[in-house]
Design a protein that fits this description.
CATH topology: Rossmann fold
Structural class: alpha/beta
Largest sheet: 8 strands, mixed
Strand content: 15-25%
CATH class: Alpha Beta
Number of domains: 1
CATH architecture: 3-Layer(aba) Sandwich
Length: 214
Amino acid sequence: MSTYGVHFAMTKRTMPMHNPTATRTRLILVRHGESEGNRDRRFTQSPEVPITAVGREQARVAGALIARHFRPARVVASPYTRARQTAEIIAAGGALEVEIEAALREQSFGALAGQPYEALLTDASYHEGPRWQWRPPGGESLTDVYARVVPAFERLAREGLGRDVVLVSHGGVMLALCAFVTGSWDGLSVTPNAGVVVVEHGDRGYGPPIVLDA
């Protein structure tokens, strides 16, 4: 089971898309490296939970992959420690400062914070309707995350016109962003730790999310 109880699939490509131009931006979405919560398979209890040694190595690999294919002008991260630490490792390769965007914070799991992933199965509402509409007690649904993060994403896309911009966030945030650019929750996947997904933005809107893995 994934953290979000959903399993999808996305297009994979091993080479970058078009080079950025004055009207084309490449938005490089990165999930944070393995956190202590991921390692222990528990919903993270605090925004201050760090990444593990494995997570740091994953971030270094992601940073090298990004440096091989792109020339980031900005690195923007969720305020949560695990995303900031991942972003700092990626930004160090280009001597960039990490900028913080509060809207990129992870989905709140409310009363499930600190509980094993499997605890969501005990919530009767989890079994009703689409998973992206499920809202844990005291928390957020993925559609709530969508409403929060999409305006920030569109602003960052406009601000990054003609440049490569790295956005380091979380699994739920990246699901919401991919649902936005594809127009559907169907056919998406939960990005693995330190996974990289690229979205182009140009005159005709957003291109499909592309998994970059080599």
